[in-house]
Amino acid sequence: MAQVKPADADRMLAKPDPAVRVVLIYGDDEGLVSERANRFAAAVTGKDGEHLRLDIAALADDPGRLVDEANAIPMFGGRRVIALRFAGNRRIEASVQAVLDVPPLDAWVVITAGDLRKDSPLLRLLEPHAGAAVIRCFVDAERDLDRLIDDELKAAGLTIAPDARSALRDLLGGDRGTSRSELTKLGLYAAEKGAITLADVRAAMGDVAAFDVDEILDAITAGDAASSDRAYRRLLVAGTPSFQVVSAATRHFNYLEVARAAFDEGTPARTIVERGRPPIYGPRAARVADTISRWPLPRIRKALGILDQALFDSRLRGPIADQVVGQALLMIAALAPKRVA
To answer: What is the model's pTM?
Structure first.
């Protein structure tokens, strides 16, 4: 199968080709990369499957571990997805080749990454291979945003006025996950109105929710559990669903994983932040640059594992979803490296 055309990506992810056991999803839209990886995992494993997040660093010492995990029999049966986040210049081609040589029967390897160069060894390995699929995720264009707006608002039973759509489109883009969260927030705000007006867009998109999510993320990465908990409780009281918080945290730590890999290769943290998409402005840019310089990759990946589990548990235990997410945020705050006096 190899390279999947953008127009065919969602269809392929919804109905996976059984001959394809390695899927690479990459690009400069981190939210869309994460969303598609999660969608594919749900499509192939169903409710009873197993989702294993494998640290890429583990393959350096044991290149055969990936094929071993792919061909292992899940403890509780069902299908299995092994998720691997590719970052930096680590060489994983030998591990991936082993999976392609001995394709598993009931497991898939899903590799996610930021944008890759055309001459990337990983791309050169996977693009010509019939047992692999390669999906590149581009930042949403205007037509994509209109389709996303229509899909989300239709699901919420809402319509939108033309001037409101134009204003909303200008506020979205750059990251699919962020756009979807903003649309969910708008849908909750206008739930009883039926039709969204320009005033609704200005009111819903201009509130403090986005600031509070950033405050939570900055607090947990700084190790300030008390501030994180206060901001999280404010969001819950304001009606923000906890799944939006854990989704935003996952996107942020995915960004940190890529950023830290670049930092370890010699790029200054502030330069990484300045080149980021979407950009980060003002005093927060300095806070994020500080986070990149202080958080090592193993801790970032451990935080991602906590968030993965929190998202799964919050869906499984709906009545206590808020508490599950809140506990995960506290656990990540406890992971934050201590500042050197």
So the answer is: 0.54
